[in-house]
Every structure is written in C-alpha cells, then in structure tokens.
Amino acid sequence: MNIKKFIIPAILISSPYVISNYLVFVFLVPILGLLYSKTKIKSLHFLFFTLVTAACVLLPILAYDPGVYMFGVIIVTTFVATFLIVSGKLINRFKNARFSVFIPSLVWILLIYVLNFRSIAISAFDIGILFPASAPLIWYTGSIGLTLLIILFNSALARYFAKKDKFALITAILLMAIFLFSHIFSLTRDPGDLHNLKQNEKVALIQGDVPRDSIFGYTERLEKRILRYINLSEKAAKEKPDLIVWPEYTFPVDAMNGFPDKMRPVIDEIRRTKAKFIIGSLLTDQTKEKHNYNSALVFNNDGTLGGIYYARASAPFNRNIRLKRTSEELYPDKVGITLCWEELNARIFRDYVSKGAEYFISLSSNTDLDYFWFKRYTSFFSRARAAENMRYLARVTQTGITQIIDPFGKVIRRLPSNCSTFLIGEVHGIQEKTFYSVYGDIFTKIYIIFILLYVFIGTIGKRLKRKEAVRT
After folding, report:
1. 431 and 358, same structural domain?
2. 307 Cβ contact list (under 8 Å, min separation 6)
3. Do 206 and 105 sit in the same domain of this protein?
4. How much is the average pLDDT of 354-382?
5. Distance CA 289, CA 282 (A)
C-alpha cells in the first residue's frame, strides 16, 4: 500500500472542519482524482484511509465520551469508505460516460438519506452548512442542496484534472460562477432591502462562561452562577433591550419546582428590567420516574411565566434527557425557539416558519466539546438555518460562540469565546418565506431522480451500442 498518495487527500478531507470552511470546494478533489485516474485502489485501502482520518479528526470527542467517539469513528468511516468504494465502482463502470461526473454527488446524498438517524449523519456530512452566506442559492436548495452542488463541483474538478474532460470543466466553471454570485450577493446585500421588514427588536444575549464541569454542580455553585447572570442582565438592561436570553442549562436543576428560592431573585430581576426573558432550564416531571426535560422558560416582562418550550432533539446518546412535544404556540410573539442540537434539524426551523415565526432564538450549552474548531463548526448550523429561511437568528451559549446572524447567513455581531459578558443587538421580524421554507429538499430530490434517469438512459444507450457493434 502506497501511503504517500493518501497523505494529501487525508489532510484535505478534514480541512473544511478544522482549517477553513472555504476548503470545502477542493476537499475531495485529490481522492476523487484517484478514482477518475487509472490508479487501482483496493477497497481495504479506502477503509484504512478513512478509519485513520476519522480517528484523528474526531479525537476531541474522546474527552467528552469514549462511546460517542467510537460511534462517530464508525459512522464517519462507514460513510466515507462506502462513498469512495461505491463511487469508484460506478465511475469505473461508466468511465468514458459524461454523466460519471454526477456519480459522487448522487452517492453522497443517497448515503446521507440512508444514514440520517438522530441527525448524526446530517451533522457530519451536510457540508453545505459550511457555506451559509450563499443567498439566493440557499433559499432554493437548503444546505443539503448546497452539499450536493459542492460535491458535484469537487467531482467536476477532479475529473477535469484526471481526464481533461471539457464537459467537467464547463460544469465546474458554471458552478463556481453560481457560488461566487451567491456569496457576493449575500456579503453585499443589506437586510434593510428585504420586503416586509418589521420593526426591530433589541435583544441581549448573556454569555456566562460557565465551564462544563461546573454546569451540573452543587446548588451552592448554582447560586453564584445565577448571581453572575443577574449582574450581567442588570448591565445589559441599561441598553433597554426588549428581550434578554440566558443559555441552555442556565438552571441545571428544576428550579421552578424543586428550588423555588433560586427563582425568586430571577423573577425580581425580570420585573426590574421590564424586559421579556428566555432562560434555559432543566425541568423534571412530578411522576414517579422523575423524567428530565431540556427546556426554555419564557417570562413576560412582569415576571409571570408566559410559556415553556421543550426540546424535540437532544445530544446523541443523552439518555438522561427525555424529549417532549411543545404546543403549537410560538413563545414569545412570533419567535421560534430551539435548544441544543436542534440547530442541526432544518425541519424544525421550517415548521416554525410555516407557523408564522419571524425570527429565531437558539439556546445552546456548547461546553461538552469545548474546542474552538468544534464551536466554530457547530456555529455554522445556526448560520445555515437563518439563511435557508431568510430569518434573523440570535444564538446564545455558555462559553461561545454567541452571535447574531442576518437573513443572508452573515454574522453581524459576535462575542469572543470563554468570557463572561453580554451581546446587545437588533433583530427584525420577517414574514416572507423562501422556496426552501415551503418546499424543503425538493431540489435535491429532483436532482436525484434526474441523475438516476440519466444514468439509466446512458446504460441503455451503452448496451444498444454494444449490440449494434456485434451486429456489424
């Protein structure tokens, strides 16, 4: 086995996650180039290559949970190795056909749909989220459609360099033109140009900088933590915000039912600031089983409880948190609230838009995997969700990355990580819906059907030519 030819592909395939998101446009070119060339590679080599790459890239997860790390390595290895093996066999079978350039993108997307359970496959391989500032393209394709086009671009470049195929070159040029136009459009557009932009809502995002080992600590620590959040909210209140948001698990215990004395100073603070509050809290039901729920408490500006949002998705393998369906009502007003890993689930955001949500609030802990590259990677999901649905999104976390995102996927305000402070910014309500908000992944599904028909017709045509050649 020649290890040297796998070194550059191994570095590039992980580069969009840990180096720069823009490398997503070339991260598969070297390895796909090997598939399009005459180089013969055994399936076992692909398996070894992906196993080593996955084990190295996912190494930070080992400190969080060895079980999750092992499962992640298995999933990534299975996905990438299957992608390379299946793509390689199909490319070899149709090596002289033009449509072979579409094969890798087709295989990648089909594997995402096959492995899409508990959002794990989506989170790892939905690489379209790494290019969120891509309106108006993302308004039609969503992040999955972007993923498809990015893989197609990698495939076209690889085929051109390996075969000097003009069709592949034209495909790559057209895609790059679309990407550049969309990116420039997103970076230069002012959200004020959008139609039906409602009056601004001033929000204050409170980042307490509570490390992971202190979140689920003793109640004595809880008192100090709540005091920290109250003091930060007091300072933020000088800017007269309409809404103040505390992150996920600000209360790691059920303070509403089990520790009401811990809630009293919070209620007093809400009444003093005269702002609406959204506070991340653990809630425990009063049954014999004592099930725990990840939730967001929504308070009116007079300190009364306006509603409770329960998380519909949780971190992988988190057996301590139960999921619960929230009522159809939006809290407060026209706001769509999400918690934790719900940022990964595009359907939740689309559901909110269909119910009339005009902007999003995301509460996250982001302390389980407290590494900069992971924080940066997960922050892209909130940017993609904002851009897909043309909505402002305010994201608050315990340690970072806390940010406010505009409807084009651009970060307009951001806090530095690992500091105790607050962010003041403005969001606007938007009623307009994107094509993706209404129809979802229909672009991707039409693409899959079209390419399958293309391959089928090409296969039939190839057989007919063989029969004709035999006759003559």
Report:
1. yes
2. 298, 327, 329, 331, 332
3. no
4. 81
5. 15
Instruction: Tell me the mean pLDDT in the region 343-367.
Output: 88
Same domain? For 78 and 227 the reply is: no
Residue 102, Cβ density class (10 Å: 0-12 exposed, 13-18 middle, ≥19 buried) = buried
Whether 284 and 292 have beta carbons less than 8 Å apart is answered as yes
Give tens-digit pLDDT for 325-344.
554 455 556 889 998 888 88
C-alpha distance from residue 32 to each of 89, 174, 184 (Å): 12, 20, 28
Which of 98-112, 186-200, 293-307 is predicted least confidently?
A: 186-200
248 φ, ψ (degrees, to nearest 5): -55, 140
Say how many domains are in the chain.
2
5 pLDDT band, cuts 50/70/90, is: low
Query: DSSP letters of 386-450?
Result: HHHHT-EEEEE-SSS--EEE-TTS-EEEEPPSS--EEEEEEEEEE----HHHHHTTHHHHHHHHH
Residue 42 sits in the same domain as residue 166: yes
Q: Are residues 132 and 262 in the same domain?
A: no
What single-letter DSSP state applies at residue 128? Answer: G
- In angstroms, the first-to-last Cα distance of the chain is 44
> Do residues 302 and 327 both lie within one domain?
yes
Q: Are residues 171 and 203 in the same domain?
A: no
In terms of Cα–Cα distance, which of 179, 176, 195 is closest to 187?
179
pLDDT at 466 over 80: no
- Residues 195-242 have pLDDT tens digits of 677 778 899 999 988 765 555 554 447 788 888 999 999 999 999 999
Q: What is the mean pLDDT of the chain?
A: 83
Residue 300's CATH number: 3.60.110.10
The backbone region for 317, taken as left when phi is positive above 0, alpha when psi lies in -120 to 50, beta otherwise, is: left
pLDDT at 153: 97
Q: How is residue 212 written in tokens?
A: 């992971």
Same domain, 168 and 47: yes
Residue 154, class by beta-carbon neighbours within 10 Å (0-12 exposed, 13-18 middle, 19+ buried)?
A: buried
Does the bond joining 247 to the residue before it have cis omega, within 30 degrees of 0? Answer: no
pLDDT score at 417: 85
DSSP assignment of 311-323, as one string? -S---TT-TTEE-
Q: Crossing angle of helices 372-389/137-163, nearest 10°?
A: 120
Domain residues for the domain of 166 are 4-188+441-471
Contacts of 173 (CB under 8 A, 6+ apart): none
* Phi, psi dihedral angles at 276 (to 5 degrees): -75, 150
